[in-house]
Amino acid sequence: xxxxxxxxxxxxxxxxxxxxxxxxxxGMIMKEVEFIxxxxxxxxxxxxxxHGVHNFDRLKNNLTEQVNKKxxxxxxxxxxxxxxxxxxxxxxxxEQYSVVGLNAANCFEALLGPEKExxxxxxxxxxxxxxxxxxxxxxxxxxxxxxxxxRLNMGFGDRVLLLDTGLVEITxxxxxKLFDIIQVPIEIKKVNLEHLKKLIVEAIxxxxxxxTNEENGTH
Length: 219
What we know:
Layout (H helix, E strand, L loop, with lengths): L1 E5 L2 E5 L8 E5 L3 H11 L5 E4 L6 H18 L4 E4 L8 H7 L3 E2 L5 H6 L2 H8 L2 E5 H5 L1 H8 L3 H8 L4 E6 L7 H11 L3 E5 L3 H23 L3
Parallel strand pairs: 3-4, 3-5, 5-6, 7-8, 8-9
Antiparallel strand pairs: 1-2
């Protein structure tokens, strides 16, 4: 393992064969997380939560199950790549299991960073990750949504803002198919991965510090 700097921030590079982290992530940003971890040279297997975890009870049960599985296998630091606001008990759950989360309210804020505040001022938006878009039909079915339910849940705003990181194919055909159901304009917003990458590196650093403090008996 080596330490370097990236955009002025401390960054951790892992050598081949190192197993340094337990990683649990929201499945809605799976391709983005995989891309970033590959760039960082992190080879550890990631437990991605399924697309239906945005039900509070299901999210809590799924997250708890994955944390317990990871911790039963080793005592490595654990990071959870899920927004703090994705469950009302998220922070208390992370603290209970001595794991570290992202410093972001949700996946959209993690991807957009400070730019999200400006986008919120422009219009009332329903944000959508490319992973959400890729699996929207499965998500509707899993959630038990009819077309009316979809309009009620997604049609309250001025637009759907689809965050395109370039890792998922976004076709006109699929956009039109979704539009026909929700009847809300769908705008594509190009997004890079710099802010999410910075948050992940920061979470790794905090997880390592937490583990060190636990081993030293300090907090």
